[in-house]
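tool_call: predict_structure(chain=1)
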Amino acid sequence: MNLLKHLLIVWISIFSVSAFADMAIEPTQHAIDAWYEEKMAEETVNSTADMRNITNQARMKWDAEMNIVYKRLMKKLNPSQQATLRKAQQQWLKYRDAEGKVIGEIVSSQQGTIHQLSGTNLGMQLVRARALNLIAYEQEFEK
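tool_result:
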């Protein structure tokens, strides 16, 4: 199981670096990523169920972060910019839900709990990427 944990942490790190490469922000580790890596490395994490639980918690943390940054950014924008961001966010939510269905369909067709963990991670990465994009927008606005 330790090998699986290490492989998952490496996989997540690769996603983290590629997500930052697409954005105009410094590639510093976000507190949620640090929390996630710390939790996944704990000795008590011994099953894919444990890892899925932590990944779901991280997704909820990223969702909360995304909402906080969205609200903060909306306060800084003029009405036209607010309307544009609001529409983009609504479209992103539809995209997230559609992608969630795709991920669910793919995962349900696979056997083994590792596929469930992979699906949970993909769902978390969707929300994480949007939160990081909003953070990048906010940082760009403040320049």
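agent: The chain has one domain: 2-141. Proceeding to next step.
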